[in-house]
Amino acid sequence: MPTIQHNFLPKTTLCLCLAFLPLISTAIAAPFTESGDASWYGGKKFVGKRTASGERLRPDAMTAAHPTLPLGTKIRVTSSVTGRSVIVRVNDRGPYNSDRIIDLSKGAARKIGILHNGVGPVTITTLPDDERKKRE
User: Fold this and answer.
1) What angle do CA 62, 75, 49 make, to 5 degrees?
2) Distance between CA atoms of 115 and 90, rounded to whole angstroms?
3) Cα(first)–Cα(last) distance of the chain, in Å?
4) What's 56's DSSP letter?
5) Burial degree of 16 (CB within 10 A; 0-12, 13-18, 19+)
6) Residues whose CB is less than 8 angstroms from the CB of residue 35 and which lie 6 or more positions away in sequence, other chains included
7) So what's the architecture of 31-135 in CATH?
């Protein structure tokens, strides 16, 4: 009767995992960075409305809307004009204007100095997991 070698599958699986490990760890460790224009939202008609995360919109909260970053992601938003930064949490989807990369809450826009103009150039960078945990 032929015998089946049972140790073949685990070695193959291990080799495949080791081959893809550098790709996976790079994707996890590398922060996402994007530059472009930010605007703010949170006028009277939006206050209290549900965001994509299910939370109610609070203009004073440090939150943002981004089209692709996972809900709950914390990011640093830095104004290219004022140099001021704020940490926000993505809790909504948007912006729905193709010229913008992010919509900030009114409070976050105020902190980086774009509230008056309504729009301004920014750079956004996702925070590493360890930095996110420190701020929670």
Assistant:
1) 40
2) 19
3) 62
4) B
5) exposed
6) 80, 101, 121, 122, 123, 124
7) Beta Barrel (2.40)
- The Cα 125–Cα 119 span in angstroms is 18
Residue 128: both structure tokens together: 């590493």
DSSP, collapsed to helix, strand or coil, labels residue 110 as: helix
Q: Per-residue pLDDT tens for 4-57?
A: 555 555 555 545 555 555 555 445 668 999 999 999 998 888 899 999 999 999
Tell whether the model's pLDDT for residue 65 goes beyond 90: yes
Domains of the chain: which residue ranges?
31-135
Q: pTM of the full predicted structure?
A: 0.74
Q: How far apart are CA 121 and CA 38, in angstroms?
A: 6
| Span 85-110, pLDDT tens digits | 999 999 999 999 999 999 999 999 99
The pLDDT value recorded for residue 30 is 82
Record the tokens describing residue 69, joined without a space: 């970053």
CA atoms 102, 73, 129, 21: torsion sign: negative
